[in-house]
Amino acid sequence: MADCVVADADATVKMTEDALAYLPDEKLDGDMAPLQLGELDLTTDEFILDEVDIHIQANLEDDLVKEALRTGVDLRHYSKQVETELQRIEQASIKDYIKESQNIALLHNQITACDSILERMEGMLSGFQSDLSSISSEIQTLQQQSVSMNVRLKNRQAVRSHLSQLVDELVVPAAMISTVLDSPVTDQEFLEQLHELNNKINFTKELSFRETLACNDIQDIVDRLKIKAVSKIREFILQKIYSFRKPMTNYQIPQNTLLKYRFFYQFLLANERTVAKEIRDEYVDTMSKIYYSYFKSYSGRLLKVQYEEVADKDDLMGVEDTAKKDILN
Is residue 222 part of a domain? Predict the structure, then answer.
């Protein structure tokens, strides 16, 4: 058949056209491939033989056509076989489809169920997204509230520190009252409570200048404690001063005692100046008398020592007879 194609080119073109009419557009089972003839117009009067030769040569170079020409296969018969095989395969595929119809229906139901499940999941995710947005807004609100509460807490702590100090200064403890009223002034506890009482007196004075109403609650108690402390301190100091006047008394011992309790006079000077002035005058008067008596005694004894061995008129010549004179005159 190859010899006929070579001998008669027209017969070859006819066979190629018939093969193109019966061959499928795609390869079947990997054995056949489409022939690339290009656009052929056999009805036109302007048919160019050179282009036809090019297309024929291109189709002849195809492997499937070469194999068909080499084995001498009739392309018309081969195309009918291919068409028959396609019909058989189509019928077999239809039978397979009918055989698997139940599985296909089950698969369809499963796909429908999956679709509904995915739709519900989409709804759940949409709700979850909206919940997340609301939670985010709530978190921002809580954060703002937290910052506001933190500021209020700091302000309250600052106010609390001032108020606690104010309350501590305003409260008069029972220990102070009992110590000032009952304890002797020589106790160390009385001295400590006297310091606290002095601080409270100064604090109430400061609050009274500011016209604070809270100081009125403790003003009466503080005044009574001050009067009691002043009276006890006055009596104690006057007793010590009066002890200086006893004969043959070493006044330095009570002076050292008074020096130990020098805060008593500071308390009187800060709170009761009249009493402080009274004690000061009494101390000055007592010590002046003591110093006067000691100085007078000292000067008398000094004069006595001076005139006991002085030469008189009988011992010296030309000595003026003068009376003994007081060295103070």
Answer: yes
Residues 85 and 117 in one domain: no
Which pLDDT band holds residue 149 (cuts at 50, 70, 90)?
very high
Rounded to whole angstroms, the Cα distance separating 228 from 314 reads 72
Q: How many CB atoms lie within 10 A of CB 166?
A: 15
Are the beta carbons of 14 and 76 closer than 8 angstroms?
Answer: no
Residue 84 lies in a domain: yes
Decide which of 221 and 70 is more confident: 221
Contact assessment for residue 228 and residue 176, using Cβ atoms and an 8 Å cutoff: no
Residue type, 8: D
Query: Based on the structure, what is the number of domains in the chain?
Result: 3
Q: Is there a single domain that holds both residue 183 and residue 280?
A: yes
| Long-range CB contacts (within 8 A, 24+) of 199-208 | 199/169, 200/169, 200/172, 201/226, 201/270, 201/271, 203/169, 203/170
Q: Does residue 111 have a pLDDT over 90?
A: yes
The residue out of 99, 120, 154 marking a domain boundary is 99
Amino acid at the residue 117: I
**Domain end call among 110, 132, 163:** 163
Same domain, 42 and 122: no
Query: 304-325: buried (b, 16+ CB within 10 Å) or exposed (e) per residue?
Result: eeeeeeeeeeeeeeeeeeeeee
Angle between helices 101-170 and 188-209 (to 10 degrees): 100
Phi-psi region of 220 (alpha: psi -120 to 50; beta: other; left: phi over 0): alpha
Q: pLDDT tens digits for 205-224?
A: 877 777 666 777 778 888 88
pTM of the model: 0.46
Domain boundaries, position 70:
2-99
Q: Which of 263, 271, 282 is nearest to 228 (CA)?
A: 271
CA distance readout (Å), 118 to 122, 123, 124? 6, 9, 10
Check residue 32 and give its pLDDT: 41
